[in-house]
Amino acid sequence: MALRKLPLGRRLLIVDLPMALILVFTLGPYLWMFITSVTDESKLFTEGPSIIGATIDNYTRLFRTVGFGDNLFDSLIVSCGTVVVGLSLSITAAYSFSRFSFRGKKILMLQFLLINMFPLVLLILPLFVLMRVLGLLDTHLALIIANSTVAIPFSIWMMVSYMNGIPKSLDEAAMTDGCTRLGALRRVVLPLCGPGIVATGIYIFITSWNEYLYALTLGGRNVRTITVAVQTLIGEYEVQWGLMTAGGIVGAMPATVLFLLVQKRLISGLTQGAVKG
Amino acid sequence: MTGTRLGRSVLPYAMLSPAVIVTLAIVFLPMLQTAWMSLHDYVLFRPNDFTFVGLDNFIAALQDEVFWISLKHTVIWIGVTIPAQLLLGLVTALLLNQNFPWRPVARALIIIPWALPSVVIALMWVWIYDSNYGVMNDFMLRLGLIEQAVPWLADPKTALGAIILTLTWQGFPFFAVMILAGLQSIPRSYYEAASIDGASTWRQFWHITLPGISGVLVTSVLLRTIWVANSFDVIFVMTGGGPGYSTYTLPLYAFVKARTNLDFGYGSALAVLFTLLLMGVVMVYLRRTGKAVQ
User: Fold this and answer.
1) CB-based contact (8 Å) between B287 and chain A?
2) What is the CA angle A68-A251-A78, rounded to 5?
3) Measured between CB atoms, does A31 come within 8 Å of chain B?
4) What phi and psi, each to the nearest 5 degrees, are found at residue A10?
5) How high is the pLDDT of residue A225?
6) Nearest CA to CA, how far is A25 from chain B (Å)?
């Protein structure tokens, strides 16, 4: 079971081949979607999707006639806004959890964990009512607030685990040298958990970018994120699969690229708790 | 001196308060509001009509045939998806833990479904299942598994199964990655010692690997159960619950009630019922994590 060298023939049969099959299962649908998106619409139903004679026609139509540019922009504002809110509120909270012991700490930490477990559907209705009362429906702010319900608790958990990895003796040394608590946080802890902050920020960005139900419920004509826009293609254009798959590829691209860039750090952050538990 | 001591005892709370206050405002109050709404007759297009009806919505739900259908589907859906994801994830993790030249590439690519928006996943699979041009029918016809094209998502008999396959596809990389991390935390010396003692690969798996990853297995099953139970966006986009009620699940039903029928009182009651049912799983999870927190 451990990492050891198998003879080449056996390895090909019991490792490479099954792994390749699993990858075909994993990436096949994605590739199929891409191939469909570059197939000429008229050829799609006669000859089926094909990479031969690839065209970016569907993509140009997406931006010229459907206005995908605006949707990308909306998603960008909402996602960046959520990252800013999520990180700024969670960093000091995480520092407090990581460095101090105080009354009610355990219960508070469990509260933040608990939030991640609650059904989103429980929050959608009251948030809708709230945004309507505040007149925030169909604004970027409404979506940023809604996405923060997920981002803040998650971000606190990630940041606590990163900060716990930084020895306490470092901030104590800084304080002996005359730093205040907050000075130690700013000058010692923050720079050291920089990579953790980036990873957490990117994860929040990806989840906000991919979020759909809040965007559907709280957005509208003015603010329509990319996920809602992609879904709208299904309804409005009956069988224009080329256009829809192109929309899917465009909508998935930013999050996928970011994910592949930071996946190592992200996964180690996400799995740490589970492996230790 | 007292000042600093006071400062020291206040500081942790001061640093926590922004996050706590915001969370109270945007999470806990809305949760309470859902509970409050569930006790009322509250339909959005009758805004002035907010009558207290006590547990009427809950009683109505328990007598509602669609509630029971949705509950049954939720159980089937979790009961099939999670084991399928776990098994496929375990096999993938064991493969990724072997020594082969393109391992880093495979490990990076395997998790792509994880980064995809659920809307895109739903759209992609609707296209795959398309009854006229979908690749699923093409594939199965060529293999001779079916004799004529099947409208996978439009047939009540196959719709739930089709969605379960999609969700399995979406979620198994999570298990693969978690289990792989667990596998890598098992010391190699255990296997070396076992080989010297002449233990077979199967016995090594049974006595070293499985106990070594059991913690990860339990945690990821619990975590994933909660996530899978909570997420319904893929189903919502793929079928909207249909045809008929054949792909309704509880959270989806609550959402549809509120969004389409604007019946916030009843929708809230369904959401609360669903949450109560899920609490059992959450409690088990918390008990485990509570130990880890200390």
Assistant:
1) no
2) 80
3) no
4) -65, -40
5) 94
6) 8
* Domain spans, chain B: 65-291
Range list for CATH 1.10.3720.10 in chain A: 67-273
DSSP-based helix, strand, coil % in chain A, nearest 5 = 80, 0, 20
Has residue A5 got a pLDDT over 70?
A: no
Could you give the ipTM of this predicted complex? 0.87
Model confidence pLDDT, tens digit, residues B43-80? 877 767 778 888 888 988 899 899 999 999 999 999 99
Q: Is the pLDDT of residue B3 over 60?
A: no
The CATH code belonging to domain A67-273 is: 1.10.3720.10
Question: Cβ neighbours of residue B112 under 8 Å, at least 6 residues apart?
Answer: A26, A27, A30, A256, A259, A260, B173
Residue A108, both tokens: 């508070």
**pLDDT one-digit tens code per residue, B226-244:** 888 888 999 999 998 889 8
Q: How far is A232 from chain B (nearest CA, A)?
A: 10
Q: What type of residue is B187?
A: P
Instruction: Say what the pTM is.
Output: 0.89
Using a CB-CB cut-off of 8 Å, the residues of chain B touching A227 are 117-120
Domain B65-291 adopts which CATH fold?
MetI-like fold (1.10.3720)
| Cβ contact B91:A18 at 8 Å | yes
